[in-house]
Design brief:
Helix content is 87%, strand content 0%. By secondary structure, it is mainly alpha-helical.
């Protein structure tokens, strides 16, 4: 019974995370300002990371968790670089 509940909840979570990725992609494409696009990018990488975590839980392999960690690190660095560029106009001082 508990494996059935886990399978259904993982499927529901993956569907909702996919929907969140679509909304974030819409915000990246149609954001009225650059700040909105950065927030959409941040949301997109976080939801992609969580989607990989749900795949890892469902399949029981550790490779998805390592990929999620890599996406988290690169996404954080990308968001910081974009925010610094929007504030000062340059990334490297």
């Amino acid at each position: 019974m508990s494996t059935l509940v886990l399978a259904w909840s993982l499927t529901a979570a993956q569907f909702l995370l996919g929907l969140a990725m679509l909304c974030a992609t819409f915000r990246i494409l149609r954001g009225p300002r650059a700040q909105d696009r950065v927030v959409g990018f941040d949301t997109l990488y976080v939801t992609a990371m969580l989607l990989l975590v749900t795949f890892g839980i469902g399949l029981g392999t550790a490779i998805y968790f390592e990929a999620a960690l890599l996406i988290a690190l690169l996404g954080f660095v990308g968001t910081v670089a974009l925010a610094k560029f929007l504030l000062r106009g340059e990334v490297i001082e």
